[in-house]
Amino acid sequence: MSKLIIVSSKLPFEITDNGKEPEISGKAGGTSASLNAFYRHLKCCWVGWNGNENIRLSEKQQEEIDLQYERKKCYPVELGEQEVNYYYGFCNRTVWPLFHYFTHLSELKPEFWEYYQKVNRKFAFKVLEHAEKGDKIWVHDFHLMLVPRMIREANPDLSIGFFMHIPFPSFEIFRILPWRRELVEGILGADLIGFHSFDYERHFMSSVRRLLGYDSVLNTVRMEERVVKVDNFPMGIDYDRVQQEAVDCRSNPECRISEGFSNLLGPAGRKNGHKVILSIDRLDYAKGIPSRLEAFEMFLKTNPRYLEKVTLALFVVPSREIVTEYKRQRRKIEELVGRINGEYGTVNWMPILYFYRPVTREETIELYTLSDIALVTPLRDGMNLMAKEYMAARIDGTGVLILSEMAGASKEMSETLLVNPHNREEIAGALKKAIKMPAEEQKNINSIIRKRLRIYNEEKWADDIIKSLENVKKLQETNLTRKVSDDVSEIFTTIYNKSNSRIIFLDYDGTLTGFHNDPQKASPNDELYEILRSLTADKKNHVVIISGRDKETLGKWFSDFPNITFIAEHGVWVKEQGKRWSMLEKIDRAWMESIRPTISFYVDRTPRSLLEEKNYSLVWHYRHADPDLGEIRAWELKDELRELVSNLNLEIMDGDKVIEVKNSGINKGRAAAQQLAGKDYEFILAIGDDWTDEYTFGAMPEQAITIKVGTKPTKARYYTDSVETVRGLLKELTDTADISKIRQEP
Ligand code: GDG
Fold this sequence. Notes:
Layout: E1 4-10, E2 13-16, E3 23-26, H1 30-42, E4 45-49, H2 59-71, E5 74-77, H3 81-99, H4 110-130, E6 136-140, H5 147-154, E7 159-163, H6 171-174, H7 180-187, E8 192-195, H8 198-212, E9 216-217, E10 220-222, E11 227-232, H9 239-251, H10 259-265, E12 275-282, H11 289-302, E13 310-317, H12 324-344, E14 352-356, H13 361-370, E15 373-376, H14 385-393, E16 400-404, E17 417-419, H15 424-436, H16 439-455, H17 458-478, E18 482-483, H18 486-498, E19 502-506, H19 526-537, E20 541-546, H20 551-557, E21 565-568, E22 573-575, E23 581-583, H21 592-605, E24 610-613, E25 617-621, H22 627-645, E26 650-654, E27 658-663, H23 668-676, E28 683-688, H24 691-699, E29 705-709, E30 718-720, H25 723-744
Parallel strand pairs: 1-4, 1-6, 4-5, 6-7, 7-8, 8-11, 12-13, 12-15, 13-14, 15-16, 16-17, 18-30, 19-20, 19-28, 20-21, 28-29, 29-30
Antiparallel strand pairs: 2-3, 9-10, 10-11, 21-22, 22-23, 24-25, 25-27, 26-27
Helix pairs in contact: 3-4, 4-5, 7-8, 9-13, 11-12, 11-15, 18-25, 19-25, 21-22, 23-24
């Protein structure tokens, strides 16, 4: 039976040595801890670093520890001191600041990168040691972005999922990384790629498009031999467990932070509606603790009536203390706490209760239950599960969450008080609003959020990802458009040589020739003329050029080819071999006057786009516009056109970086079918590159060889990557035909 292997930078169990025998024990916080429940539930395996930097083990102790890990189906990756320093250097000092938009803090050191690759390889090896055919591998986070590709290259039979827990930045930020291409290619080794929010997904797709040129359709990236799905799965929490922990905490007197502290924050210590505001984070510049403190200071300054009536319980959990910027953060926080307490504190009251120390799970839960307000204002945060846990722990339904709009969690909790974490006035205002908010209103808001969190919990999140991974595999199997490899083209030439009557449909732009800034300039070159001459020289061949081009252009370019049949303007005009142009049916063009101004308006608004006027259609080209702007404008234009054409008998065609408006019912498929009607060709070949050619592919009989140029989803049975390979294939057909002719001749 196939199994699931979780891969994360750290295992959920660390080696601890409390003076007796070293043993492994569960970690308190972080991503691996939050995946832990899921791991227990699915009984999967886990590959990760054991976190052991300092504990030296004897051979016997090592055997015992290995056994303990084995029992838990955990497979530790061993890292040396240098590897830990440099690898985590890349993770924490290069990627982390950059992906959280702290570009000035990102250290672009080649030695970090070197170790990142090395350690990622170690993780991939460890997975490959334990993975068997059909297994699912679920790789987590920015520490392991190269692992999916490394695994795939060694074993393509595995299903690989990748989930990113932190934001994926906009391309303008991501492009700073000298190793951006390798990272995107590494992630794309997965079959399914997940992010917390649509924005991160969008940013990733934009990097894929700009760096590798792969386009996406409906979250699907078409790679060389397979499709990759990219989607957003906002991570949930183990809602019932958090709620139960909160219930236990309230009923169990042993579960207390400390008597004195509980008394101060608990009901007994609250007089005259005293409110407790909770702030609890790892020490990290991305968490925005100094801005939060400044906002709190502003609140005290502008609302003197709340002096002595509020307490900010500020917990800062030590983290990455060797990194200079973290030390600086700590200093900054402590200066601010000192300044605020010094200025506003009294003998009976300190506005901020500050703690710089680790916080246990029980303490965290208790703090949730004791605090009237949770102030969660990171400057950037992938999701922030603590905001969700606060909601789940409020068992009486009260509590106000002030949440940064820069946290992924804000997308699912828009009912709460959302703030811009850089805006001190806004946070101060939200604090006042939160303090004054009646309990009924709190409950109303929270009930909506709590219901959502209960339904889309951690289990559902993980199930969704695993199911999606299974679905991608099915999609990959049904969507098996094969590449025209050397073997495949050899089969084509064999069939070609054996057949006595052949028809070959060839699209022009993007198929026989590359794209040009000015469509009028993409005229055929000598090589193409030569290929067509060879093809048409064989009397068994009927060559059909089937294009969106107007008949004048095709007529001018191919005046020396009376043996070719031309279909122009997507099937409006036909010129049979040796005959004149004729129209497939009479077409009205009066509609152009009303549509032209709209397209012209988009030409003006989109630099480097242009309007092409054909006899029976209007075309907006945006291939050379900025890709993102082009996509946005294309959506807008389609939207506008849809309104305009609703009463006219028109069709909007969404081609490869073109939008074309033309009379409906006219398409390449209809014109191609007419060429096939009543004939019995032994060899049928159709090659095209864009959406309009899908009509041609759709009109072909089952035995036809249909080839798409490019990697977008298609009805064609094969794909190839460029105009050059199309020309190569056509040459091969005629060349081998010549050879076989020569061989037959005595
Ligand atoms: C990444 C992203 C994203 C956290 N600190 C302590 C602690 N925790 C517990 C929480 C929660 C779990 O860990 C996750 O917390 P966060 O959401 O804050 O995330 P991180 O692991 O720091 O980081 C983040 C997350 O991944 C999940 O995708 O939300 O945006 O940066 O259960 O309660 N628990 C204890 N002490 C801590 O100091 N006991």
